[in-house]
Amino acid sequence: MSDNYRVLRALRLYLVLDPGLCGGSEGLVRTAQAAAAAGVTAVQLRAPDWKKRLYAECGRELLKALAPYDVPLFINDHADVAVAIGAHGVHVGQSDLSPEDCHRLMTPGMMLGLSVSNVAECLGVDPALVDYIGIGPYRATPTKKDAAAEIGLSGLTDIVSRAPCPSVAIGGINRENAARLAGTGIAGIAVVSGIFAAEDIEQECKILRGIADQMVI
Fold first, then answer.
1. CA nearest neighbour of 89 among 16, 185, 197
2. CA atoms within a 13 Å half-sphere pointing along the CA-CB vector of 89
3. What single string gives the DSSP state of each residue in 20-40?
4. 3-class SS at 142?
5. What one-character DSSP code corresponds to residue 181?
6. Where would I find the beta strands (DSSP E) of the chain?
7. Largest alpha-carbon pair distance within the chain?
8. Which of 128, 139, 150, 190 has the fewest CB atoms within 10 Å around its CB?
9. Cis amide linkage into residue 166, ω under 30° from 0
10. pLDDT, tens digit, 9 for 90 and up, residues 163-199
11. How far does Cα 147 stand from its chain's mean position?
12. What are the beta bridge partners of residue 114?
């Protein structure tokens, strides 16, 4: 397990990278660097169609780009890739490698996130293994093909109230709806297309960071 302050700091404005939205690995690195400079607090590389070598190559470039801003990099699904490149954490879904198996691979100090979409999955989280949970989708989103049905504000609030560790909301979150999540108890917001779809990514990150800072106590 990682220290709680480090986890909470990472979750404030969490960018999930999607190679389909920014022109491959070079575009991912440029976007991540610009976002980190503008206030993003964590970056996750999620590229389900990629082979592991490309994951590792892009991950190493991301680590270099993010280092000056002290922004941690999470690798989606592939704990072995995360360990190989020295990433800061791993994020897995319900059908990915289990938290127990992830910890068999992870090195001390790495953070582990787990996606949940309902109360039953939340209640199954072991806080001795999982540092944070990603709750969603808050709203329907086209950026994750296998996403569950949207849970809405009431569903999100219900899950957060039962969460055994810090949580971040994800799924269709943008500047128009992010402030509505105030008071739910989340530690931050995870954004994909809400950033990538913006004409000025840096400005959008600054706006979303301001909303997140006001929203999270």
1. 16
2. 28
3. GGTTHHHHHHHHHHHHHHTT-
4. coil
5. G
6. 13-17, 42-45, 73-76, 89-92, 111-116, 132-135, 167-170, 188-191
7. 42
8. 128
9. no
10. 999 999 999 999 999 999 999 999 999 999 999 888 8
11. 14
12. 92, 133
**Cα 212 from Cα 217, distance rounded (Å):** 9
Its pTM stands at 0.94
Pairing mode, if any, of strands 89-92 and 13-17? unpaired
The 10s digit of each residue's pLDDT in 71-97 is 999 999 999 999 999 999 999 999 999
Q: Is the pLDDT reported for residue 202 higher than 70?
A: yes
Per-residue confidence (pLDDT) for residue 163, from 0 to 100: 98
Q: CA angle 40-91-175, nearest 5°?
A: 35
89-92 and 42-45 as β-strands: parallel, antiparallel, unpaired?
unpaired
**C-alpha to C-alpha distance for 203 and 128, rounded to whole angstroms:** 37
CA–CA gap between residue 62 and residue 6 (Å, rounded): 19
Confidence band (pLDDT; 50, 70, 90) for 146? Answer: low
Is residue 117 pLDDT above 60, yes or no?
yes
What pLDDT score was predicted for residue 60?
Answer: 98
Alpha-carbon distance of 6 to 42, in angstroms, equals: 11
Q: Do 214 and 40 meet the contact criterion of CB atoms below 8 Å apart?
A: no
Please give the mean pLDDT across all residues of the chain.
Answer: 94
The distance from CA 151 to its chain's CA centroid, rounded to whole angstroms, is 18
